[in-house]
Amino acid sequence: MKKHIFFLLMSLFVFLFVYKNNVDAQICDPSHPSCGGEACVSQRVIDIMQGCNASCQPNWVSQTVECSCFPYCEVVLQGIYCDQSTCTSTYPFGFSASCCLEDGESTTDQCGSSNYPSCSTSGTCSDGKTCRQDESTPELDCKCYCDSINADLKVDIGAGLVDGPVTVHPTQNFTLNWDASSGTDCYLDGAWVYHDGSGTYSLTSSHTYNFHCTRDCGRVTDDWVTVNVLPIPNCGGVTGFSTIVAGSPGSFSADYYSPQGNLAKEIFYDNLGTSTYDINRIGYEDVADSSVTWGPLSATWTPSLAGNYNVCCRAWNGAIAECRPPLYGNTPPVYTCDGSDFAGSGTCMAVTVVTPTPTRTPTPTRTPTPTATRTPTPIQTIAPTFVPACTCSHQLSPDSYTLNYGQSTTFSAAALSCNPAGCGGMITSVDFSVPLNNTIASICGSTSTPCPLTSYTYTDSAAAFSVGATAKTQAGNVSLSSVAHWSLLIGTTSDTSTITVVGPTNTPVPIATQTPIPTPTRTPTPTATRTPTPTATRTPTPTPTLIPLVCTVDPLNPINISLGSTTTSTALVRITSGDVTGVTPAWSVNPLTLASLVPASCTLSPTQALCPVSITGNTIDSGTYSVSVQITDGFSLATCTPNPRNGTITVYNINPWWQVAWGSVITDGSVSSPIPVDAVSPYFI
């Protein structure tokens, strides 16, 4: 009771003293845009009696405008307000607040009663307090006050500093800038920082940053800013046919996810025989619905060319973000699909497209036409007159020609001779052809190159009887045939040339060593001989028997290598039928980043071929490597079984060891720490 009476008397004295000396006696102006009214006047009196410099401020807790006592509670924007002697806290991060401190009431907090008015330079306070004038008593002595803290956190995404929230793309850089009163202890998301500074950050998911500062004497404040990250779509679980015959369909499917909806889905293929990572669409679906976040996609692909391919998935979140498999681009707003939302297969699968085995059509046997027998006249015998046979030949030039992938050239056919001279007349047209569905070259008119990939025949009816040839994207040899029709000759003549494809322009590609296909001897095609002998008959030419091409590939050795090291694996191709003149292996690895494969030339014998490949470990992981092998006899192609032949690859890290430097080791026994054999770099020694 005595304390309350003393407080009232003291408060009245202070009020009269302040009024008499005209010390900050102005009350809130009711016309002030942020404060005014009778509530402010009454609160003002209470603040002055409590001994502080009052100012008009909004009370964010009670949603009213009042006169507040400062610096007792200067962090009102963060939800703390000092209402007379009661402290209210609405901190979202759970920190306690102490803004209603009565520091000047204790004699232990005095910093020198004789130092006024030089309190800030003469007085000494502890726990981070400030020595300044006490206007609540007539002595005007110096006391220690726990000053409030001003803290500010802002974000800049390229358009200037703002309080947030802001929205960024995943991994997009942005700047955080923070500032607080000196003499404070500050933390950004729990990590200590200087009271003012800035830094560059990036996120893959949304986050709220907290800037928290305290004084030893009990002041505390916070500020925060929210950075929202646009969601990235994802895809994976690609499944389907691992081997397809060219010209036949194969089915594929994949799963897709977009946390924000607006999901668009695609399945595409990439020909690994090219030097770039191309995207060729197989199937596509645009859901365009924000409520649909999951879904599969199925599509059918009919490849036209043999080779090794990737079939992959691709996803969109509307126009906001897109994901692609590794190696197919990752510049925002394009990001890498990781397939982590799906079980099973990844974002791509390896597909081998093989050439269909052509069906050999047997040549029909001609039935000889019996020659009519002339009945001799009894009186006079007519002696038969023998007409010499007419034989002609033509030449296809050049005899052979070598092309790089995608290059074209021209071949021409011209008459050589006829016996007797001139008996065949002149060439009227020439039919050109290469083996159907071959993977080496295509032909067309000499003025229409490059030729379509599926063009295998062409007829020229005008001199100079020429044909264009274009190399495909597989190395090897193929025979170009020409059949000439004459104006007087009964029958036709034929000749051949060889087309060799060796690889991309200026980029040598190792291919299987092939024994050159011998140029067939130009044997003039005999024409029917007019033999008037009554009893003569024509003997039919026997049809040659074609030997089928058959081969198998032995199992590949499992490969276990350390990261960065290189080893060699060899495919043993066993030839069980056919006169083989060339072997072409196609190597691949899954996943693509596991290892690098460098093929070498094959060694060919009549019964087998050895095809080596150099393997270098690139990523610590496990997977498979495969080879598809084709053989040729110069006229047809055959694919060895199984197709493909697969082997396993495991890439592991090098084994650890230890060494001693600048010291000694003492032991009662032996000490051994050999350097692993797979530590091949001189930096490891």
From TrEMBL:
Signal peptide positions on this chain: 1-25
Keywords (A to Z) from UniProt: Signal
Sequence segments annotated as region (Disordered): 354-378, 506-546
Compositionally biased spans, kind Low complexity: 368-378, 524-546
Protein name, UniProt field: Uncharacterized protein
Species the sequence originates in: Candidatus Woesebacteria bacterium GW2011_GWC1_38_13
